[in-house]
Every structure is written in C-alpha cells, then in structure tokens.
Amino acid sequence: MRLVLQRVSRASVAVDGAVVGAIGQGLLILVGVADRDSKAQAEALARKVAGLRIFSDAEGRFNESLLDVGGSALVVSQFTLHADVRKGRRPSFTGAARPEVAEPLCEHFAEALRGEGLSVETGVFGAMMAVELVNDGPFTVVIDSADLERPRRG
C-alpha cells in the first residue's frame, strides 16, 4: 500500500456535488493499493499513521500524533498512486490492485484506523471525487508498506 498523508486544517470529499466525508484538523490520506498488499500491511500502516508524530507541540516541535491532537482522518482511495511512468508518456496502472482487491483493503485500512481510536471519514471507492483541503504547513508525507518491512540504514 502507498499512502500520501497531508496534514490539514480541514478537508472534504464530494461525489456529484454532495459532500460524502469531511474533517477538521487531521490528515487527508490518499490510499493506493497494489496487488501484493495484505490486511496485515493495512493494519501496520494504520498503527504507523495513528502514532506518527507530525503535529506540533507547545514548543513547535513535531512531538504530537494524530491521536494526541484529537485529529481525524479522511481516507480517499487513489489507484493512480501506483502509476508507472518509466516508459512513454502515458502512465501504466498495472501495479495497482484490481477494484475487487483494492476496495476491501481500503475499507480494512479505514477500519484499522478506527480501531486505533481515530475518527475516520471516507470517500466513495471508484467514484469520481472532488477533494478539497487546506494543507497545514504544508506538510506531506509518503509512506509505502514496503518501507515498513525494510531494515533502516544508519
């Protein structure tokens, strides 16, 4: 799984002009699922996201997690995170999981975040969505489940 976390003051997602999910302070999380991804990876990423210290404390240091600040998460599926642009000018999406695999894993990730104690809103899987956000910072982090499995150097 590949996640793009954007720290936000607020974010919302609409389908056909109707808002289907909205949050205040927290994280907009774009989720791309690959064929090789699993429920265990979704759960590990949820734990990582919930505890990731990317919010400022009283001294302005990144010492607070989403849980610490009482923030929410807006989870939006985005298969294009697995675009392969190495050949030609048209991205290939063959690395992205098929919808019947990706949708349950996106839902499992959102449920795992809830299991960590977070308030979670979601978009609509497979729909054309309009995402609005006010990026706080800006502060954006990309996490790939493969990165959690590799030993850290240095």
What would you say this structure looks like, in words?
The chain is globular. With 154 residues, the protein is an alpha/beta fold. The chain has a single domain, classed as D-tyrosyl-tRNA(Tyr) deacylase (D-tyrosyl-trna(Tyr) Deacylase, Chain: A). The protein contains 4 helices and 8 strands, in the order E-E-E-H-E-E-H-E-H-E-E-H. The protein has helices spanning 39-51, 66-69, 99-115, 145-149, and strands spanning 2-15, 18-23, 26-32, 55-56, 62-64, 72-77, 119-122, 129-144. Helix content is 25%, strand content 38%. The strands form 2 sheets. Strands 1, 2, 3, 6, 7 and 8 form a 6-stranded mixed β-sheet that branches. The chain has a two-stranded antiparallel sheet with strand order 4-5.
What features would you highlight for this structure?
single chain, 154 residues, alpha/beta, D-tyrosyl-trna(Tyr) Deacylase, Chain: A, 6-stranded mixed sheet, 8 strands
Per-chain topology:
Layout: E1 2-15, E2 18-23, E3 26-32, H1 39-51, E4 55-56, E5 62-64, H2 66-69, E6 72-77, H3 99-115, E7 119-122, E8 129-144, H4 145-149
Helix pairs in contact: 1-3
Please outline the major beta sheet.
Answer: 6 strands, mixed
Tally the structural domains: 1
The CATH homologous superfamily corresponds to D-tyrosyl-tRNA(Tyr) deacylase
The stretches of 5 or more residues where confidence is low (pLDDT under 50) are none
* First-to-last CA distance: 25 Å
User: Using only CA atoms, what is the Rg?
Assistant: 15 Å
Order of helices and strands: EEEHEEHEHEEH
| Total count of helical runs of at least 4 residues | 4
| Rough outline | globular
Strand fraction equals 35-45%
Q: How would you describe the oligomerization state of the chains in this entry?
A: single chain
Question: What is the CATH topology?
Answer: D-tyrosyl-trna(Tyr) Deacylase, Chain: A
CATH first level: which class? Alpha Beta
Class by helix and strand content? Answer: alpha/beta
